[in-house]
Amino acid sequence: MRGELADAQLALPDKLARVSWAYVAAIVLLGAVGYAMLYSAAGGSHEPWAWRHAVRLAFGVLVMLFVALVDPRLWHRFAYLAYGGAFAALVGVEIVGSLAKGAQRWIDLGFVQLQPSELMKVALVLALARYFHGATPPQVGRPLFLLPPIAMIAAPALLVLKQPDLGTAVMLLASGAVVLFLAGVRWWKFALVGGGAAAALPLIWGRLHAYQRERVLTFLDPDQDPLGAGYHIIQSKIALGSGGFWGKGFLEGTQAQLSFLPEKHTDFVFTMLAEEQGLAGGLAVLALYLVVFLMGLVFALRTRSQFGRLVAAGASVTFFLYVVINVAMVTGLIPVVGVPLPLVSYGGTAMMTVMVGCGLALGIDVHRDLYMRRHPDDDL
Amino acid sequence: MQNPEAERSRVFTRRVALLGGAKLVAFGALGLRLHQLQVRDAPEFALDAEENRISQRLLMPARGRIVDRTGRPLADNVPVYRVRVVREQARDVAGVLRALAEVIHLPAPRREEVVASARARAPFVPVTVRDDLSWDEVAEVAVHAPDLPGIRLDSGLVRHYPYRGEFAHVLGYVGPVTERELRSDDDPLLRVPDLRIGKSGVEGGYDDDLRGKAGLLQMEVNAVGREIRELRRRPGTGGADVELTLQADLQRYAHRRLASELGASAVILDVHSGEVLAMVSVPSFAPDAFVNGVSHAQWEDWRDDPRAPLVNKATAGVYPPGSTYKMMTALAALELGILDQDTTFYCPGHLQMGRARFHCWRSGGHGSLAVVQGLAQSCDVFFYETGKRVGIDALAAMSRRFGLGGASGIDLPSERAGLIPTRAWKQRAIGEKWQPGETVVCAIGQGFVSATPLQLAVMTARLANGGYAVEPWLVRPPAGRAVPTTPAPSLGISPLSLALVREGMFEVVNGERGTARAQKLLSETHRMAGKTGTSQVKRITRAERAAGLHKRKDKPWQDRHHALFVAFAPFDAPRYAVSVVVEHGGSGSRTAAPIARDLMQKTLDLDPTGGRATAADDRPLRVTVPRRAG
User: Fold this and answer.
1) Residue B535: CA count within 13 A, CB half-sphere
2) Which of B219, B243, B267 is where one domain is finished?
3) Can you tell me the distance from the alpha carbon of B209 to that of B211, in angstroms, rounded to the nearest whole number?
4) CATH number of the domain residue B86 falls in
5) Which of B265, B281, B323, B589 is catalytic?
6) For B263-268, what is the mean pLDDT?
């Protein structure tokens, strides 16, 4: 039975039949919300953001479906290679950035700007999933066995922190930690590392850039500097607060339309949504996101291989972190760290990361009955 | 122990359930927060009550001025009257602009640009139609205002450079904020429409000081965004003025004196403090052109011009120093004991090394001469012989002590370092062994050797001040704070060696056989010392030399020699150093030396002490000024 499935190659129609179209529909719906918001952000115009967003969304959905139809054993095989490539690219921008004397975070490929830190979000989940796929529970219990995955998480996180991109560093750390947790690492070990991190906090504070410290400080007291770094948060809160329960209506958000809501088409798009559509609209969109995340976890639960479980759950967590960090940021719960709201914010990189991640989760679900061996060479 | 796979799956399922729970809790928290902001505390955000709400706008502060050492403004702000259009109020932007065109001058292409730019922005953002209205035009627009919906008049400040191109390379220019700058800079001020920030030169390097802090305007606006009344106005803090070491009159004179050349630059330094009194590069450009974003065609014109008007040749032009480098060769030999004042070499007009023949500029030869006359007559063979004995690495070491081969660190962006070659450098950069013939060529400042006019001025200043390592600087510390001074460290050159080299430079100008003997200063009391340089751009072929073609004046401009001159004065108590480079000027003594003489004369004329030494000059000072990367 197992042997049969290991060798089984699903035909394309079978695969398409197994695609969870409800999941795809939820993602397209979120993208459509983004389209409407960007149309409104431009004052009721497809220019300059909305139509580009639509094009990217269509392209992104195609990429997601393509990723979903690829045999996950291929991802398993190339997981470390992808991680190595992403890591090399991260080191690459660091070197180029230090030469060009600026915070350059992307590689310009001409038609698109490639951000290695975004690649890393997906590659890290794949690499950790492969590592723990090949592990037995007793191995997972051994502290020494956990050192390589911790290094796999910490090295890119530190590089990204140095760029400096606090938001992405937090996302890498958190999604990595969640994969470890799902792989069965003991509670008390997390407590140990967490305690150590808390002790290292003063050290991290010393390494933060002046503007990052300022953001943390103004987060604690935004009124202190209403025109400087606190400006974003105050404006965002006023916009949200004036939206009320039902909102001001599509294209009627006065804070966003008339006043100076910063970056309303990128990081602060949720503020505009909640101003125009009110608490009702904001909660509806959050609920839609929640459906996508929980479906990702369902995919993880009903797949047979540990690799598949960890990939599906890990991708779902990465997506979840984007949304939570963004919404917490615009509602003033955490400092402004510059994380977009995927599928809704204008901007291609985060959307592509999320589409690839969702494609992986979807693909795991399509191939959920696939048996995968401990090592990729045993498979093919 | 049960089946490990089952165990793993069981742990995973349990933990996924926990994770799902955590996600629900996190989203619950976000939902509660939204409820708190949008329902519970909503009255607290009552600024946005039914009809009226407060709109906040940032006010642009006045940009700091850039002034010369006497406080004369070199970059200033002048008031302008602007007419702007707001798309959502105009409705039909093109129609309104057509109506406006009947009132003021507004050609059709400009109208199309404005329509396109208004369409690209949010509808409530005012787009500038013209920013150079005369007072009469303002009145005309105001009279017709009822027929021009969405048209607004206001006044603002715009950057102005009263001396146009004369200070352009030092000052740099300002321009509109780009997307990239918006991404990399957090200052909310950058989002103010019409803000201009520094892009190059001092405007760029000192932008943080010049920029100032944004002010705040709170307006009560009604539901359609019409402003009802002003609630609160907190003016911004204007940017700080930046004071330069430049002397405006001297800089302007120097620019005019050089302007007739196709490409040239000059630097004038105070040899004791390192202050840059003038730094000129021609041709220049009009920095005002950048304020509203320079047109693509104009930009390409400037970029592709072989005379490179956008490049500051004083810091970013590198040239073979030619014979102005012979002081380094002489000093290295004197310090090593290879030469003394009486050591002579015989010049038959060339030096033969194996199969290679190295020519002296004077084909008939100079006969026998020692170091002072070697410099005065700029005998190439004398320095071939000297350089051969010194060796390239010792020559390089001496050059570096005088500031060649490395960026001076002056507070201007894109300074170039020039090149002082060594054996190790050639192995590293080219992968070949150093050839003895190359040492000979380098000894007269040709071959791999290259330097900027600023570096040559620094070298001359260090020779003039008695061998102290002054460094050039351009921007004075903010008002009220004294210039922090520490004595410049000595280079450790023996006074006798320096005296001999300076004597040679004196003879260049004042000696009977000096190469620049026609260029004495007008005054009897002040005498100038200097050195000519004529550096070869293109190799002279044997055939050309035989035919005498290499001295012809009708050679194509880009093949002609560069003309250089470095000088200091007064000879007995030096205060100023000058370097002049005329690109493809033909001859150092005929082209560069007269310019340098005039610049020095003007410098001394403008000096309130008349160039007399003061007590403070007994000990040269190195001035340490906090520097910022440009």
Assistant:
1) 29
2) B243
3) 6
4) 3.90.1310.10
5) B323
6) 96
- Side chain identity at B619, as an amino acid letter? R
Same domain, B370 and B273: yes
Q: Is B182 on the interface with A (CB under 8 A)?
A: no
A44 touches chain B (CB under 8 A): yes
Say which residue the tokens 């190195």 belong to: B622
Instruction: Give the minimum alpha-carbon distance from B389 to chain A in angstroms, rounded to a whole number.
Output: 40
In a domain, B490, yes or no: yes
pLDDT score of B485:
66
Q: What is the pLDDT of residue A256?
A: 55
How far is CA B313 from each of CA A92, B146, B305, B416, B447, rounded to the nearest angstrom?
A: 34, 54, 14, 10, 20
- pLDDT tier for residue B50 given thresholds of 50, 70 and 90: very low
Cβ contact, residue pair B8, A184, below 8 Å = yes
Angle subtended by helix axes A348-366 and A116-133, to nearest 10: 20
Q: Are B55 and A259 within 8 A, CB to CB?
A: yes
Answer yes or no: do B202 and B257 share one domain: no
What is each CA distance from A208 to A42, A215, A229, B169, B302, in whole angstroms? 35, 11, 16, 36, 42
Identify whether residues B230 and B260 lie together within a single domain. no
pLDDT in the model for residue B258: 95
CA B615/CA B217 separation, integer angstroms: 54
Do B324 and B217 fall within a single domain?
A: no
**B332 and B221, same structural domain?**
no
Q: What is the pLDDT of chain B when averaged over all its residues? A: 85
Q: List pLDDT tens digits, range A324-365.
A: 999 998 888 887 777 889 999 987 788 888 999 999 999 999
Distance CA B471, CA B459 (A): 10
Question: What number is the ipTM of this complex?
Answer: 0.88
**Cα of B230 to nearest chain A Cα, Å:** 15
- CA-to-CA distance for B267 and B247, rounded, in angstroms? 12
Domain count, chain B: 2
Q: Assess whether B274 and B154 both reside in one domain.
A: no
> Two tokens at B442?
């380098």
Task: Determine the 3-state secondary structure of B132 from DSSP.
Answer: strand
Establish whether B323 is a catalytic residue. Answer: yes
Domain of residue B458, residue span: 248-282+317-623
Rounded Cα gap, residues B262 and B269, in angstroms: 24
Q: Are A252 and A258 in contact (CB under 8 A)?
A: no
Could you report the per-residue pLDDT of B474-487, keeping only the tens digit for each?
998 765 556 656 67
Q: In this structure, are B229 and B331 located in the same domain?
A: no
pLDDT higher at B33 or A105: B33
Cross-chain Cβ contact B119/A229 below 8 Å: no
Q: What is the DSSP string of A131-149?
A: HHHT--HHHHH-TGGGHHH
Residue B545: burial class (beta carbons within 10 Å; 0-12, 13-18, 19+): middle
Separation of alpha carbons B615 and B618, rounded Å: 6
Query: Which residue matches tokens 């329960």?
Result: A245
| CATH label of the domain that carries residue B605 | 3.40.710.10
For residue B27, being part of any structural domain is answered with: no
Looking at beta carbons, which residues of chain B come within 8 Å of A324?
26-27, 30
Q: Give the position of tokens 């401009």.
A: B557
Q: Report if residue B6 sits inside a domain.
A: no
N-terminal to C-terminal alpha carbon distance within chain B: 68
- A306 has a chain B CB within 8 A of its CB: yes
Q: Rounded distance, CA B546 to CA B535, Å?
A: 20
Mind listing the pLDDT tens digit for each residue in A178-214? 999 999 888 888 888 888 888 887 887 777 777 777 7
Same structural domain, B395 and B432? yes
B9 occurs within a structural domain: no
Q: What b/e sequence results for A181-195 when a residue is b if at least 16 CB atoms lie within 10 Å of its CB, and e otherwise?
A: bbbbbeeeeeeeeee
